[in-house]
Please model this.
Amino acid sequence: MKLVLASSSLAPCFCVRFFPPNHNNLNLSFPEQRKIKLRAISVSCGMSEVLKSDLMEPEAETLVNKRNLYAPIEPYSTGNLKVSDVHTLYWEQSGKPDGHPVVFLHGGPGGGTAPGNRRVFDPEFYRIILFDQRGAGKSTPHACLEENTTWDLVNDIEKLREHLKIPEWLVFGGSWGSTLALAYSQSHPDKVTGLVLRGIFLLRKKEIDWFYEGGAAAIYPDAWEEFRDLIPENERGSLVDAYHKRLNSDDLETQYAAARAWTKWEMMTAYLRPNLENVQKAEDDKFSLAFARIENHYFVNKGFFPSDSYLLDNVDKIRHIKTTIVQGRYDVCCPMMSAWDLHKAWPEAELKIVYDAGHSANEPGIAAELVVANEKMKALMG
Model:
């Protein structure tokens, strides 16, 4: 078997053989595979590290050269799906109509989708499905918190799958999208052909405290002070709660001010090198209101999970699913501790650490590894 190593540059990748040429554990049934002693192999190449197990490699001779984003494409169909008495979701399809289905789960929650999200998938192989989650993007009503929980979204994904008459699909999600992808796949493992996850967020208290209660201020003290200073000193015992009060104020201008500050904090910390265009998204009041209100709503409610470690505790339900995790080494929004905790609980999944990246999927190293992950999934999907 060969292990593919790839740098985050666009240079050609190469292979290192770890197993003899006749080694092929794919001839085994899954229970037999599980008997193989998993070997956590750590290797580095250029700007990326791969930690993987025997179970991920699709073929004994695998080499992925494709690392560039695909050209922009337009949807071939769009629609709106009413999923409750309150909410209607925008959805779209692009790529190959009879290709292997992949559903893209956006971040936030509340972030919505963007045309660039289609570009990490081969449009000649994949049937690419994007949708805006409740209250986000083109879904209506905008920024609505009513009937908006993790489990509502999990049910929405199933309703969309059934609406589009898709038996099963590859699930792709980054940041909050990785949270939702894990929750969905653990609820419906028989509908998932593979997982590609980026910027792991398990929505545990320590992750919320790190980013919203002062931990990340050690790295971005300048941006942090602007976020913190919107809140009076006597309310800073919990900034998440203090922002919750303002984001749900009866005064729309109070909501907008809190939303801009909340969104700007995240946008300023999302890239390893600050991205001005990303930061300016905070000035879009429509985007910021949905992004901040819905995020804060989920965080105040602890993701609507029954326990802090719920997603880790239920890994056994998806252990058999072929999975790649892409994580920026210097991710401040969703620090690598969460990807590492997931990797330890789930060594069968492949973990790729991108050394020259932070959180955003638009950083070159992360984008390249996401393309590679989707290319490797093609070999599995046939």
Notes: The longest helix spans residues 252-269.
